[in-house]
Batch of 2 targets.
Target 1
Amino acid sequence: MDFTFPREMEKFRKLVREFGEEVVRPAAKAADEKHEVDMDVIRQAAAIGLLGVPFPQKYGGVGAGETGYCILMEELGKVCTSTATTIGAHIGIGAMSIYLDGTEAQKQKYLVPLARGEKLGAFALTEPNAGSDAASIKTKAVRDGDAYLLNGSKIYITNGPLADVISVLAVTDPTLGAHGGVTAFIGEKQFGIQVGTVEKKMGIRGSATSELIFEDVRIPAENVLGPVGLGFITFMKTLDTGRLTLGAATLGGAEEALRIAIDYARVREAFGKPIAHKQSIQFMIADMAAEVEALRSLVYRTAWMVEQGMPYTKEAGMCKLLGSQTASRNIHRALQILGALGYSRDFPVERMFRDARIAEIFEGTNEIQRIVIASQLFKEVGIRIRP
Amino acid sequence: MDFTLNEEQQMFGQMFGDFMAKEVAPRAEAIDAEGETPSELLEQAAMQGFLGAILPEDYMGAALDMTSYTLLAEAWGRADLSSATVFHAHMMTAMAILAHGTEDQKATYLEAMAMGEKLGAFALTEPAAGSDPAGMLTEAKPDGSDYLLNGVKSWVTNAGRAGTYVVFARAPEGVTGFIVDADTPGLKVGGREKTLGLRGAEIRALYLDHARVPAANVLGKVGHGLRVALSTMDFAHLSLAALTLGGAEQALDLGVQFASERKQFGVLIAKKQAIQNYLADAKLKIEALRHLIEHASWLAVQGKPYSFEATMAKLYGGQAIYETANTMIQVHGGYGYIVDYPISRLYRDARAMSIIGGSAEIQRVLVARHVLAEAGIEVKP
Amino acid sequence: MRIVVCVKQLYDPKMARVSQSRQSLDLRAAELIMNPMDLQALEEALHVREAVGGEVTVLSLGKPEADDVLLWSLAMGADAAYLASDERFSEADAGVTAHALAAAIRRIGDVDALFLGEYAADSAGGQMGARLAAMLRWSFLPALAQVFLTDGHLSGLSYLETTARRLLTPLPAVVTVYHRANKPRFPHGAAVINAYREGKVIVWDADDLDMTLEELAPQTLFRGYSLLPERELGTRLDGSAAEMATDLAAMLQGRRLLGGEA
């Protein structure tokens, strides 16, 4: 057991932290207010490799593995959840699906420019009537010569309006259902994928979420991602890494809330003394810190499991579940400690409060995470449960 | 033990619900988006007698008993928490004047407030003294037959819009309440606070720069301002608790409605146990809160002290509305995060309720003080 | 074209506290960082290399863990890194340090220019550049920005308090880089990973540098820290603007800070 990070990981964290403080944090408030992605921040992140952190250097990545990717998300999660969301969707599910199941040719063609940040990625799974329920997918892919024609629509796609390369799941054989009948494709915006409604959201307003519409979009057969009919597996596998690193981003948010709470409690006086002397405040802060450390251990141990090649579906679900709850709770507590200042839009806790709430919902609601975790636990004792 | 509302209360409850559903709820989204409670809405409310709800008929009030008042506040909170907060701040100001004003003061101010000609605002909090009125810095210096008020009040709901302020300041004899007209020279309002929720309520700082207030406008006795403030808090706690009850009910309604329409894995999510548990827990909180409020308001109607019960209702209400809104977002899934769905607004509004009108932490101190008083132990914050 | 950049590792002065005994620094909360001014020197050298080619070599003197600032420099784009490290340097003053660095520069060989930060954030002496120039008998250009190399010459804007002079000198030369000359780049993530995984730092001790006992003997001794007295509160003036102006003028005249009659 060694709980220290290798030196290169500590230094990679230093890089990301300095980038976060100097470039990302100062831009966060305006992006939230304008409700748009600050592409200048994304371009600067791309220039130093931050859009390809986990991927091997031979594919244009940083080669920092899952641990490095968690470090990136944790540090971004401290300063701007929107930026963490944009980059997380790009790397963690968009490009990751190609890295996990793409052919060498697909990796060269798509993963390399994605990892270098020359192109932006997205991951299109959710549909109006199929959120976490992939079996209800309606988007159809019909073989047409050396290509497939896709028809349907996807909703709540992070990076939808900006992405160049979009991994998309569609039904190729309606008789076979989720296992055998759905296929993953690598789509390009220029194939004719249209951007539908751009959502107005309560938080993560510095990221872009939209509908994507497929009307006879022609995707070459060579862009089938993974085996035909097994797209569901590719997508679920991808979501596992997405959930782990979402957990890392929530760790950053939870830590930031703790830092803000301590800073404020140290100086704010009531009844003649800093409120740090009040047990109500101390206990909130102690709980915040304990939950942060529990989450940190879970996140980095799970990253280690990924790098060891161990199965980690259950743990990834736990990272997302515990992480989103910890971030929300800690920001809730920080807001309480700051009182009216926490409720004011002049201070960052208000934005953090709105931003944090999404993590309990997207990439599979927490209810779905509990189902995933419970399914794994019961599978170990021979019981198969269905949602 | 009789848990039924009397005929009059039932009738009022029906009437309030109808009005709010028809006139207020449809405007809630715009009130939030535009950041303003429209004047015509307040005028309509005045015509219904709502702005003088608890005032006696002598002052053109509706003379509601406290239970009926909580039904009104609940109905308003259910329809829209922003404008309900505007109403609440107005009502507690009127309540302070009713309880502590002289006959002249009541005659001068209450009728105009009941008619909606003057909106009320209650200025107690200061930048460095939130839950701690003893740390107040605003000064009231006697000057002939007047007082000169100097200082800053923060987070004053309705500031800038109100015609009548109740302001607390430190006179030589101690903290004292004053009724201050909006056109008093030296009274200025600060910029609008931008907030997470309650965006339709105008919240600003109040600057008092040698504001000249006649001694005749002292509310209650000189030096007894904390008593005036604290007794008004009893009413304010109950009023805010009723707002949270309405908000929590609205959140549950939205959750039930969504769960009854949304299918996942081939069935309505309302059929899923996890969702049912959310709904069950929310209902539990709502009914517990309702009973806390009903009990407190019943004590008030009986003319008995209700301070402790009102504080508990406010403390619990702040938790209940937040937790309910929070889980109902979860029921909505991704839809709950999109501003087109009212649950996200309700969630932002709900978060205020553990902060405004005294933080949850200070209310726990008050409850603990009551609990430990029986054991002979004195509790200080 | 070979530029050597001298970089120093130090405790972040923002986080170091003088301990209560006032004799030592409390470094529990302090982090080891690269002198921020040296980052600018490196950035300026990398600029020059990008314009005219050649290589950038970084050099430091310090404990073995000072390899950190050299590896970070490699991540930023330096081509080679040297560390002068020896227990006999533990009491090194500016003179010993200058001897060691000068010896290292001679040993590296073929150096056309030496870049340093304008001063070190922990000692703020700002003397190393001048000392090295004197020892190496190279010309010295202080507080330089917009550094430019042409055929055998180096030029730049040398900043004084309110003016800047454009200077030109033949090579080799020593340059201290103005503390606001540039904004140092972020290294690429992959370069950070590679530098710390496989970056090479060549370590030389005093023997490698052929240093004499005399060169190793510090001339200044460090006797401890002391806190400066806290600044006294200023005087507050009251009254109308005209009254305050009159009072202020009288005060300044009283202290002979302003001409005229008191």
Target 2
Amino acid sequence: MTDTRELVQHTEAINELLARYGVKFGLYKNGTFKEQLFPFDAIPRIISADDFSYLDHGLKQRVTALNCFISDIYGDKKIIRDQVVPEEFVFDSPGYLHQCEGQKPPRGIWSHISGIDLVQALDKSWFILEDNLRVPSGASYPMIARELCRRASPKTFQTNGVVDNRDYASLLRSAMDYVNTGGCTVVLTPGRYNSAYFEHSYLAEKTGAHLVSGSELTVEDGYLWFNGYDGQKEKVGTVYRRISDDYLDPLNFRADSLIGIPHLYDVFRQGHVALMNAPGNGVADDKGIYYFVPKMIRYYLGEEPILNNAPTYLPFYKDDMKYVLDHFDNLVLKDVAEAGGYGVVFGSKMTSQQKTDFIALLKKNPRRFIAQEVIDFLDLDIMDNGKPVARKADLRAYILMGEEPIVWKSGLTRFSRNPDSFIVNSSQGGGFKDTWVLSH
Amino acid sequence: MGIVSLINTDKLFWLGRYSERVYTTIRLFGESFDKIIDGNAEYIELFCRSLDIPNIYSSTEDYVERYLFDPQNPDSVYSNLTRAYDNAMTLREEIGSECISYIQLAIYVMNRHQGSQSPMIGLQQILDDILAFWGLADDMIPDENIRNIIKTGKRVERLDLYARLKRPRTDILREVSRLSVRISRTNLKYSSEDISRLKQLADSATTDYYSILQIVDGLVII
């Protein structure tokens, strides 16, 4: 039996320490940039060793299949030819990049760090909500929170058999080194006004990488170089990029990008640098593609999926459209192009006019939406004015791909502070918890 | 010595300058504030003139509030501390989270003491935080070049301030000596002739503060 009472008494002190270390995220409100502390609740999410073992197998299976899918899409496209995934869902996806056709990233890895969002239902079964493969963020928060929790309440960690999660930086560094083409490692950030800037800088510090902006890197003679103040330069072997595909290279992607590096993608294409995560992998974290992941697992691995998707419908299919219209009030509808908790609407919360407008939009562009059954999440307790109250929470699990996929024995548990909300995103006022994996 | 980019070199140098500016100007403010307590409001003008900043303050209260805490006043301690913070927070991988935390703490103290009737209490905590930051930088930053770029910024700023304040020759001599030792341990581009000239100026019987200021301001090329 775990006991977190002593730890919870230190909630305020831990939040003060988080503030001291600048654990914040950035937000734009009315055109103005603001930094906010990320509220921490000290009651952890606790995952037993058996439960983690189940998640471990399921997540490795899922990420392996997703990686096979991306390789296939930019290669032979067998899964399309075999009509397992309709081509509309691939080539219309904003994550699909024609520039990546024929591309083989170093060691064949497309998603080096995958952030898979899960929820636990009332019966304690787990469901996958989303696959985040592009630049999933958030691991730094439980990393530093654990460090501070251990300072605040060492006794808690002496007695509860919690697996230490402070190995994330070394796991990440191993993943960086595994694909390194020969040179130093950099974390490429869009800059301090990015919402996840704390994380960029913290992960650079903890992995011993250079934190760089695009202007500090240049392409010369087919290689990428990190330029020093006094004319020295160092070849770059791995770029852990925290900027999106579109902005990576103005000569290959968006021409108006001021934060990218001209010709970076050409260096990658020649195999002279590893970009992690690899450009083009967003084709697999499209909310529309999510529907097909169980099919991918069967197709590529010949296995039954261990972890289930939330029951999902694609209005693109006639039968599914009918189901969605018949059960509209019971479903949550998601715009596949949105992220961060935006573009998510609950049928039951719409006015009649909103419903009419939305259904018209859905019929006009069915590919743009997915519909899911509203899962009754298992609420987690958070402390509110000194009392425990139940709130919706999800779990982002991190899977790092090196020689083998490794599931980090922790994760980011986000919760809604609003009792009536399912939206847990930090940008919408949510907080976070540590995620304990027990050794027993 | 690892490679440090041009951008980070500039930030390290200015982190040193702004942290020193906050430290020394708080101490100077404390001296003038002590005199103002006794009704010597003319010290506000004297303070501003000595630092070569405009005297925009309409009263003693206005001076205390706006010189210390006004984020819109580019000469305020708040503005200088914010600039130190802006540089520090982008240097986490170079100087470490522990070092940055003391600049962050100073910002919190500054925010907490806005409008305080006892400003020196909060300012003392900021001085302590700056001292802790320098101590940690010395102790925890493994890269000698990085450490010395921050310290060079600090020495440049202190000499600049001391020259403006027309400090005694002994102070100037000591600061020139410290700067010349420190800058030689960095990869910063500077003219050794300028350092020699600074030493001559500091050593002469009558100190030419204006020439010292001119050399100091153009000493480091980033």
